[in-house]
Amino acid sequence: MIAAIEPSWYLIVSALLFSIGAFGLLVRRNPLVMFMCIELMLNAANLTFVAVATKFVGNDVVRDINGQTAVFFVLVVAAAEVVVGLGILVSILRRRPGANADDLAELKG
User: Fold this and answer.
1) What is the average pLDDT value for the chain, to the nearest integer?
2) CA 105 from centroid of its chain's CA atoms
3) Would you say residue 60 lies in a domain?
4) Are residues 41 and 21 in contact, defined by beta-carbon separation less than 8 angstroms?
5) Based on the structure, what is the number of domains in the chain?
6) Is the Cβ–Cβ distance between 28 and 2 less than 8 Å?
7) Where, by residue number, does the polypeptide cross the bilayer (predicted)?
8) Are the C-beta atoms of 69 and 49 separated by less than 8 Å?
9) I want to staple 103 with a disulfide (CB 3.0 to 4.6 A). Which of 20, 24, 90, 99 is the partner?
10) What average pLDDT score do residues 89-95 get?
11) Residue 18: which domain range?
12) CA-to-CA distance for 47 and 31, rounded, in angstroms?
């Protein structure tokens, strides 16, 4: 029989994923890698929402769906980010293949 994993372990994994995403966002200059780091941070937030929802409700039955509702909204925001942001990034990288985040800052005008 597999022992149930405590929600605190999910919070630890979530904090680790968020830290990796934040570190990658601060260190890397490639816009696509920065984009993936933002997605990693959003997924870490989703894991936190679900872990906290199960911790405060209990492990047997999920009666409170506030955590899952928050995850749904985060997924919608992430999908919108992917559609708009990735489209802009791909169009910029087609014109300037070696562009990095500093080059994109020059596009402000």
Assistant:
1) 84
2) 23
3) yes
4) yes
5) 1
6) no
7) 9-27, 33-58, 70-93
8) no
9) 99
10) 86
11) 7-98
12) 24
